[in-house]
Amino acid sequence: MTSRLLSSAIVLSATFAATSAQAFCGFYVAKADTDLFNQSSKVAMVRDGDRTVITMANDYQGEPEEFAMVIPVPQVITRDQVHVSDPALLAHLDAYTAPRLVEYFDGDPCSPVMYDEVVVTGSRKIRSAPPAPMIERAKSLGVTIEDEFTVGEYDILILSAEESEGLQTWLNEEGYKVPPKARRTLRSYIKQDMKFFVAKVNLEKRAENGSEMLRPIAVAFETPKFMLPIRLGTVNAKGDQDLFVYALTRGGQVETTNYRTQKIPSGQELPVHVKDEFGDVYRDMFTTVADKEGGHGVFMEYAWDMSWCDPCAADPLSDDQLQELGVFWLNEVQQKPGRPMPRGRSKSAARDVFITRLHVRYDAESFPEDLRFKTTGNRDNFQGRYVLRHAFDGEMSCPAAAEYKEQVNKRRETEVKTLAKLTGRSRAEIRSKVEDTVGFYSADDMEPDTKWWNQIWKDD
User: Fold this and answer.
1) Half-sphere exposure of residue 88: CA atoms within 13 angstroms, side-chain side
2) Radius of gyration (Cα) for the chain, nearest Å?
3) With CB atoms 3.0 to 4.6 Å apart as the test, which of 15, 33, 195, 416 could cross-link to 98 if both were Cys?
4) Regarding predicted confidence, which is higher, 240 or 177?
5) Is 276 helix (H, G, I), strand (E, B) or coil?
6) What SS3 string covers 397-443?
7) Is the pTM of this model over 0.85?
8) Residue 378 predicted with pLDDT over 80
9) Are residues 313 and 451 both part of a single domain?
10) Is 70 exceeded by the pLDDT of residue 136?
11) Total structural domains in the chain?
């Protein structure tokens, strides 16, 4: 039996602060979601006060009977605190917060017009008690089986341990092949008095449920600790890991306290051919940003009041979807009388929920500590957003046309330099693609399309 050791337990808090938002106009045309990154994990985190709900998406690929997961948690978890969720929820959350591409279209320089804004918008059953030999063997190794139950297609054990060697021995004997080098990490969690949430796939229940994929596991608990254990996730990982954290709080951006959190570049204008390869472009862009930090780091890709978005990369999550993710305070919040609904928000839209998307690229050496978080009280909206600006391609017959074409050429040269800087790609390669797609205006193109005498008597 092989195991997949995932890192997931989290605590966040939130405070209120004034918000200021800048509206963006344009058409949303593409997004860069988590599918671009290999060996990536997704964790949704809901936090208010000490109350925490985490939903963990399993990125395991292989036979279901070989799946196993060990998660450090701050307390003994009971059956009622565990839920199997819908995979579509995290996919929706990912699409909603993904870095996005928008496009604008220039108007006729000979007939200036104002831009119009367009916004695109399981049953649970308790298992019988563990067999006595299992309990006795665990006890002899200093391991206590605090609880055992089945939720959806998962058999779950809640363990506590006196020392790491006994825990590791017991897990290995029970089919959880824990790598030998995990012992030191397990020992540190035991010293913190953390418990261990252990899950395996129940093939019989999986067949009954008819699920073709392993669904996310959600866990609710209370703890004052603001942290996410990630070190077990590096024990048997091959190379860098990408972790996407979606933190939902009642106010403000979320950042890490023991690692620097920085925003990804945003707002740049890129060549229009990027529309057909935005996924590859963003992956190169993120790698370039991470490489400047030694190949690893914590990067904010999105932070926004979930009551609206502009533009929306996906439909806003409904209250029912947010409650499924664990947003437990929705029923406490009412729309204030006389207060207008924010633009882009429907009556059923999310209320009093601020989301932060953090993209963490890490390995065991670069991230020797678990992630610790704080809410900053900053409610400024931010999104990884990149702009395509299409030049006017109709007939232009006025003196302003020549100046406009010259500006377009300069703009396209700037876009080439910007894309090269963001992605590490060569300017020559990018410029060649620009020439193959939209091209540059020649000197003849920029000659005014009027006779000289038309400039004398302009009022005629």
Assistant:
1) 6
2) 27
3) 33
4) 240
5) helix
6) CCHHHHHHHHHHHHHHHHHHHHHHHHHCCCHHHHHHHHHHHCCCCCC
7) no
8) yes
9) no
10) yes
11) 2
